[in-house]
Amino acid sequence: MIAEDDPDDQLLIEDALVENGVSRDEISFVEDGQSLLTALDSTQHVPDIILLDLNMPRIDGRQALKKIKSSESLKHIPVVIFTTSSSDEDVKSSYQHGCNTFFTKPATFNDLVENLGIIKTYWAERAILVDSL
């Protein structure tokens, strides 16, 4: 599940994931933290991973991360911060609130494909994940 409010970034992320062998059927987007939390509360299928932008309307990624990681039923889901920010404060705060890794969005599509490939390789092929607790 990908929390990203920019439609252009959504399209680029989707295309980059497809380039990395991810089926479009496996990709779902929400536009803000409120929609993310609603989807997580109402879904029968818990996502394997969440890519989370920090700067979104309504509930931003910072607030959504805190709520996810403080929830007994959601805290096991890996959360990858994927945002334009590279500020030390955002990086430190994200890790303090439980994110699993932090990526700053790259400037080029090729770098986007590479970064999402790294995320996919690690989280989908290497890491051992818990389906639910």
How would you describe this structure to a colleague?
The chain is built from five helices and five strands; from the N terminus they run E-H-E-H-E-H-E-H-E-H. It has 133 residues and is an alpha/beta fold. It has one domain: Response regulator (Rossmann fold, 3-Layer(aba) Sandwich). Strands 2-1-3-4-5 form a five-stranded parallel β-sheet. Helix 1 (7-19) packs across helix 5 (109-126) and helix 2 (33-42) packs parallel to helix 3. The longest helix is centred in the last third of the chain and has 18 residues, at 109-126.
Secondary-structure map with pairings?
Layout: E1 2-3, H1 7-19, E2 29-30, H2 33-42, E3 50-52, H3 61-69, E4 79-83, H4 88-96, E5 101-104, H5 109-126
Helix pairs in contact: 1-5, 2-3
Pfam families: Response_reg
GO biological process, one term: phosphorelay signal transduction system
InterPro entries: CheY-like_superfamily, Sig_transdc_resp-reg_receiver, TCS_response_regulator
- Biggest β-sheet, characterized? 5 strands, parallel
Please count the helical segments: 5
Strand content: 5-15%
Which CATH first-tier class would you pick?
Alpha Beta
Describe the strand arrangement of the main beta sheet, using strand numbers: 2-1-3-4-5
Structural class: alpha/beta
**Overall CATH architecture:** 3-Layer(aba) Sandwich
Low-confidence stretches: none
> What is the overall silhouette?
globular
The tally of domains stands at 1
Distance between the termini: 19 Å
Question: How much helix, percentage-wise, in residues?
Answer: 40-55%
Order of helices and strands: EHEHEHEHEH
What's the total number of strands? 5
| CATH superfamily placement | Response regulator
Gyration radius, to the nearest Å? 14 Å
Q: Report the oligomer.
A: single chain
Pfam family, one: Response_reg
Organism: Halioxenophilus aromaticivorans
Protein name: Response regulator
InterPro entries: CheY-like_superfamily (IPR011006), Sig_transdc_resp-reg_receiver (IPR001789), TCS_response_regulator (IPR052893)
